[in-house]
Design a protein that fits this description.
CATH topology: Ubiquitin-like (UB roll)
Distance between the termini: 22 Å
CATH class: Alpha Beta
Helix content: 10-25%
Bound molecules: zinc ion
Number of domains: 1
Shape: elongated
Radius of gyration: 14 Å
Largest sheet: 4 strands, mixed
Strand content: 35-45%
Number of helices: 1
């Protein structure tokens, strides 16, 4: 699809890093499948993937650590 941010690039299948902040815990989710703009690097995550991220991160936001790193599992 066409990138809505720069309006120049086309997106392609790729991976991105997704960060969720909740209170004092930041969950960094790696290897998230996304459509990535070849021009500006903007990443687009679809709704299904986003809800999976939140499901997988839900336990970790209760952690005592300030930062948790999660590898996305499809
Ligand atoms: Zn772009």
């Amino acid at each position: 699809m066409k990138c809505v941010l720069c309006r120049n690039g086309e997106t392609q299948n790729g991976e991105t890093l997704f960060t969720i902040s909740r209170d004092r815990v930041a969950v960094v989710v790696k290897n998230v499948p996304a459509q990535v703009c070849q021009n500006c690097g903007e990443a687009y995550v679809d709704d299904v993937t986003a809800s999976r991220i939140f499901n997988q991160a839900e336990e970790l936001v209760k952690s005592d650590n300030e930062v948790e790193i999660l590898h996305f599992a499809a």
